[in-house]
C-alpha cells in the first residue's frame, strides 16, 4: 500500500519527535529506555520505505536502494550508533515524502484537468429539460449550457452566442467567440451566453477525455534514460553490498581499522553509495514537464517522445492546416467597372455568392461581409455551373462570377489586365475569380490559402536551432513554392501523395537524421507513423491522432516551439541531476575512506543531494 505524501510527512515528523525524545533521555538520564524510543523511530519513520523496498524487491526480483538504506540503519544500530541510524531513517523518510509529493503534485495537475469535465448536463427533449449524467449523452442529443457552466460534451452550437474559454485544453487565455454552427469542446467554459448544443461525440470519445487518457499513458511510461538507470540500479546495489562486505573484511582482517571502525565505515558506505539521487534524476523532472505541457495543450503519448523531441534536426510540415490556415481567403479585391460603383457592386456580388456552397464563394462572402449594408438585391435567375462559377440576373444586368473561361473576358481594354492577372496567378499559385456585368469586367478577387501568423516566426526559430525545415504538400508546384517562400522553409516537396511523404521521411532517416513530421490529415498519417516523432495538429483526423506521438490541441506552431524548449530543458536538467548525483557519491565515498565523514553527515549529504535533484526537476512545472 502506497502512503500519501501527507501521511509520510506525519510519520517522518513523528519519528523526529521520537528521536528528539530518545536523545534527551540518553543525554540527561541514565535510563536505558532511550533505545525503545529509537526503535519506535526506526519503525515509524522507516515503515513506508521498508514496505516499498520489500515489495519492489519481490515484484522485480532484485535488490533496490531502499533495502540498502534499511541495512545501513540496522547496521548502525547493531554497532551502537542508534542516533546515527535513526537520523538516517528520519532524513530518508522526509526525502521519500518529498518524492511522493512530487509525484502527487503531477497527479494533482491531471486530476485538476479531470475535474473540469462536468458530471451532469441539461438534456432538451421536446419542450422539457432534464438533468442527466453527462456520460449518458449520445450523439444527436440537444443540450443546454448556461453562462458560467462548462460544456459537458463535444458538439456544434445550434442556437445562441457566447464567449468560450478553452484554456484548459489549449493553454490560450483569451476567450473565443462562438455562435450557430461553431464547434465546441467538452471541458471548456461558457462565459456569457445561453447555448443550445447538438452533441457529436460520446463523453469517452471527446477531445477532453482523449487528452486525459494521453497524459495518463505518457506518465506511466519511462523514457530510455530512466530505464537505463533502473537497469543499472540492480547491478549497482549488488556492487555496493560487495564493497561494503570488503570494507568490513579487508581493513579489519589486515589491522588497518578495527572491526568496529570497519563495520561503521561499511554502514556509511551503504548510505553514501546508494544511488537515490541518481534514480530520482529523471522521473520527477519528466512528470513535471508532462504536466506543464498538458496545461499548454501539448499531449505526449509517452515520455520517450519528450526526450526524443530534443534530438530532432529535420522537421517536415504538411502545408494545408499546418503552415497555412487551411481555408481559402481573399488576399486582394479590385472593382474596375467604368460606371457601376463599388457600393452597388458589393451587395449584388454578395447576394449572388450567398446562393453558392463553393469554398471560394465563402471566401468572397467573408471578405465582403464587413462592407455589406444588409441590402440584398433581388435575384431574377441563378445558375450554378460546376467547375466554372455562377450566372445570375440582378438589377437588370447579366452577371457572371467565376473563371476566365466562364466570363469570356477577351476584349482589348481588358487584355493587358488579364495578362497581368494570369502572370500573378502563375507566380503565386492564387486563384483569380472574375466578376462581369453584361460581359464587361466589373471586379476580380485574388484568393489563396494564407500562411498562419505564427508560421514565419516558428520557422525562423527552428532555423536558429539549426533544424532543417521541409514542406510536403499535394499542391501543384507554383502554389507550393509560393507558400514555401512565404513561410521561408528550406525545401519544398509538391504534388506529394501519402507514399511520397513517407519516402521523403525515410530518405532523411537513412541519412541518420532524427525526423519529426507535422500534419493534421488522413494523408499525413503514414508519414507521422514512420517519423521518429509524429506531431498531429489541432486534434485533426482520427488517423493522424492515432499514429502521432505528440498532439498539439490548438493549431498553433508556437506550441511546437514550447514543447521543444521544454524537451531541451528536461534534457539539461536530467544531465545536471546525473552529473551532480554522481559527483556527490564520489565525494562522499572518498571522504568515507579517508575517515573524515561521519554517518550523520553522510546521511545529510546523500539525502540532501536527493532532495536537491527532486527540487531541480520540479522547476519544469513552471513555464
Automatic annotation (TrEMBL):
Q: Which GO terms describe its cellular component?
A: plasma membrane
Gene Ontology molecular function: ATP binding; ATP hydrolysis activity; ATPase-coupled monoatomic cation transmembrane transporter activity; metal ion binding
Q: Which domain of life is it from?
A: Bacteria
InterPro entries tied to this protein? ATPase_P-typ_cyto_dom_N, ATPase_P-typ_P_site, ATPase_P-typ_TM_dom_sf, ATPase_P-typ_transduc_dom_A_sf, ATPase_P-type_domA, Cation_Transport_ATPase, HAD-like_sf, HAD_sf
UniProt topology in membrane? Multi-pass membrane protein
Q: What is its main location?
A: membrane
Name under which the protein is recorded: P-type ATPase A domain-containing protein
